[in-house]
């Protein structure tokens, strides 16, 4: 197996130049965190570590909870602590908000944030359905604020390297089939009490929490070309309240590309992309959260073949290792803050790429859900 | 990543004991090769290398071709060379035949071989459909001869190690989802002239040649429990003569297990098993032909989880390396010959395990084909 180290600290080097620009030209973007979800701990740490962002405030329905959260998550001494989400949005010093609230609350709070001229970093799934997301997009567009979803792996330098491989007509050729999965095993308490099994909170369940990543990876590999037809797999697991605990689907494109995915709360932690092209193959087994924080790898194969007696491979896949000093969630916050600063201080327009790919992901996710609801009938997009 | 070397030369050690028994007690099993297909070169080499088997004869429709094949493939000086398949079957000194003929000819020649009291090592797919295979099984049973298909990876010591992992309730738990694929990119000449694109020869195309392995792997992982329902993927590629060039399917079990597979003549060489259980995950990327002839590996993960901030994995998959002095196809020939010797010299009954799993594989393969033919309708098994 050939091992290729793709330059040391790619992110570090790349960021160094953008930091110096951001740091030299613009003040740091001031974040407000709307809600104290568990994932907000990771995001708050990322804001602390981002060179062009700072934690400015946090709001919870309970002032006590907000205080405890700020104290535990490295908020600076002057950070504002609020006993409501509204108070965060009303703080004129806050530039941008991070919204980790349950999916059912996204449309309300993201639209309100946009209307209060706050830029919005929104947890995934972005909404309960694409119609709700379109309300959020419309509010952000009419208020000129940046919208980005919290799909962190998009910002890992490994992803750029993998994109490069998938785009290489000589090494990968054309994508023809792809399989992705994301599963993790939850405990009895989760199955009883987590917001992700509650129809009125994260009502999309495993499809929203895990399938989102699988579908994003498929769209990413397909250069964001939407499939024409989506057919959900039979036998999804659904709890008594009607929330999906495991499911999957097949996706079909006009040109014959085929994708499948599987997601589940009921099996061991697994996250794979297997993308097969006319000339090459991509394998990655930790695409959402890399095994290690500062180093990640993928496997690329090109024009693989057997020896004469078909007893071994002639060209084996090579392992590509990408090092990064800066974790992917910090790169996400940095990129979001860079766009916000560019709007705030440089009169730039919001970057449409991010809401566009969020919308496509939600659109396909909606189709999977519709196919399940219609008894696994094909749903055309 | 933890790397675990599973004992040096497992196969070598295991075989050493069975050889000494076979060699001490019984003469070598004498093989006749029926047809000079390309794959017969590999199998002839395997017979030469097997301690309990010997190349005794080869037959082709052309005597010249048979002569050239014997000369090029290490047949001993006294080996018989025949200008017909019948002559091989009529040679009273031949114990067993290897049948690498096109699938459409299997039923005729395997049945005839069995009726001539020859044990049958039969290439895959074993027949054009399960009804044909049942004729072969009936002929072998009534003549008391061993039947085994040529699925070599079943005999690699890695497979036994992986079976052990999948059967481990503590490390793997219960299988819930599995994806397999087998693809390779053929050239223009293959698409025009190879027997695998000809409806009257290997009429099952990619499904028979590649899908066979995907389905076998799925059944193997499911402990050979048959799925209840099979639904072919849409958009299979089919040539003008009606032969499948790429296809896939979803398989469903009563207990909620789900499997998907994809096979294709049109994309890069790729062969994966991704099996996800309630407690563990198995990954292998070269399950049919290992990257190396004498060393193979797989990845096993158990109770994987994240660190507190969900920025990296707590327990990463471990890589298990299995060394073998004896290639898998030689182990296959050795096991087949051991069974034949036990019948011939020890009055044993044929081992039913092998035709049983061949039949199950063919049964599911037939269901995939039927689903394609019925416009991707569910087919119940």
UniProtKB/TrEMBL annotation, chains A, B:
GO molecular function annotation: nucleotide binding
- Domain Gfo/Idh/MocA-like oxidoreductase N-terminal: start-end pairs: 29-148
Origin species, per record, is: Psophocarpus tetragonolobus (Winged bean)
Per the database entry, which stretches of residues form a coiled coil?
A: none
Q: Which superkingdom does the taxonomy of this entry point to?
A: Eukaryota
Family, according to the entry, reads as follows: Belongs to the Gfo/Idh/MocA family.
- The GFO/IDH/MocA-like oxidoreductase domain is annotated at 168-282
Could you tell me what this protein is called? Oxidoreductase
Q: Which SUPFAM superfamilies match?
A: Glyceraldehyde-3-phosphate dehydrogenase-like, C-terminal domain (SSF55347), NAD(P)-binding Rossmann-fold domains (SSF51735)
């Amino acid at each position: 197996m050939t091992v290729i180290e793709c330059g040391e600290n790619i992110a570090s080097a790349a960021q160094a130049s953008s930091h110096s620009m951001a740091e030299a030209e613009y003040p740091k973007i001031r974040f407000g965190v709307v809600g104290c979800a568990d994932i907000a701990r990771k995001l708050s740490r990322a804001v602390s570590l981002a060179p062009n962002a700072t934690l400015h405030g946090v709001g919870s329905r309970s002032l006590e909870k907000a205080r405890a959260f700020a104290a535990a998550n490295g908020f600076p001494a002057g950070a504002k602590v609020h006993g409501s989400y509204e108070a965060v949005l009303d703080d004129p010093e806050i530039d941008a908000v991070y919204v980790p609230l349950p999916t059912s609350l996204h449309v309300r709070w993201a639209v309100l944030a946009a209307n209060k001229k706050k830029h919005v970093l929104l947890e995934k799934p972005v909404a309960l359905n694409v119609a709700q997301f379109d309300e959020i997009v419309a509010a952000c567009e009419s208020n000129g604020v940046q919208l980005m979803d919290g799909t962190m792996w998009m910002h890992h330098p490994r992803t750029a390297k993998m994109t490069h491989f998938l785009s290489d007509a000589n090494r990968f050729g054309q994508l023809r089939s792809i399989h992705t999965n994301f599963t993790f095993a939850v405990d009895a308490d989760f199955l009883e009490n987590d917001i992700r099994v509650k129809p009125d909170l994260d009502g999309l369940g495993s499809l929203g929490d895990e399938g989102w990543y699988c579908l994003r990876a498929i769209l990413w590999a397909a250069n964001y070309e939407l499939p024409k037809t989506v057919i959900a797999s039979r036998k999804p697991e659904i709890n008594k309240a009607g929330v999906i605990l495991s499911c999957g689907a097949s996706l079909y494109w006009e040109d014959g590309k085929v994708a499948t995915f599987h997601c589940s709360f009921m099996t061991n932690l697994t996250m794979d992309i297997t993308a097969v092209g006319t000339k090459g193959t991509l394998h990655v087994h930790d695409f959402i959260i890399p095994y290690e924080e500062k180093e990640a790898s993928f496997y690329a194969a090109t024009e693989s073949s057997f020896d004469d007696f078909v007893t071994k491979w002639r060209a084996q896949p090579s392992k590509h290792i990408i090092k990064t000093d800066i974790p992917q969630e910090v790169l996400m916050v940095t990129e979001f803050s860079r766009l916000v600063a560019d709007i705030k201080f440089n009169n730039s327009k919001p970057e449409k790429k991010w809401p566009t790919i969020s919308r496509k992901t939600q659109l396909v996710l909606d189709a999977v859900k519709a196919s399940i609801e219609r008894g696994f009938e094909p749903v055309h997009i």
